[in-house]
Design goal:
The structure is a single chain. The protein is mainly α. The chain has one domain. Helix content is 79%, strand content 0%. The protein has four helices and no strands. Helix 1 (2-26) packs antiparallel against helix 2, helix 2 (32-59) runs antiparallel to helix 3 (66-91) and helix 2 runs parallel beside helix 4. The longest helix has 28 residues, at 32-59. It is elongated and about 55 Å long. The two termini are 25 Å apart.
Length: 126
Amino acid sequence: MRIWLIIGALNGFLAVALGAFAAHGLRGSVPEADLTIFNTGAHYHLVHAVALVVVALVGLNAKGWPAKAAGILFLIGIVLFSGSLYFLGITGSRALVMITPVGGVAFLLGWLSLAMAGLRLKPTSN
């Protein structure tokens, strides 16, 4: 599960870097609507980078496939959902908009998989 911590941390770095790029490099260079779309991609990217770190932590104690599936689905969601919004925000092209919802579905399935992983956690006594 260490790999999900590394992937999550690197994606957190990338999401913050892309958010800064939007704020300082794109503002004034692209239409405001496209900048908003780009920022939506960065927001979802950062949220799911944190989710990948949670996957790493949950995966330490959860048995079976759900935690790993959640990580894979979150990563697919980042690439498809956030990636397509980044592309649209920078280029103004809607060529990839059909994959955006696929990324959104991957995010949703990732959250369900993470919930299933939570159900497999061993209860702790306090």
